[in-house]
Amino acid sequence: MLQTIEATIDDIETFCQEKGIAGWYSKIPGLLEGHFPNLQSREFSLQEDDESEDVFVEILFSVAGDPEEINDYYDMFLDTWVEEVPVEVRAYFQILLDIVE
After folding, report:
1. Phi and psi of 32, rounded to 5°?
2. CB 40: neighbour CB atoms within 10 A?
């Protein structure tokens, strides 16, 4: 089960610096904006897995529009994410998409 860790943006940035992923963390807003023209919002939080005690950055972003079109954008985003971001870095991020009307 996941548990949200009370954290400010500064706390999240510090976590990313300590893990050596700050450069990737700072690129995520641009990646989202570049792939989702109808991006409504994005939220970052720290989450901890109760079982493994792993801590990671959760990115919840909301997009408006046609679900099929959003799915196409998401596929392109994931292709870029997997191609550009090393697997050991991706392990520190969980990306959640919320489709809004």
Report:
1. -65, -45
2. 13
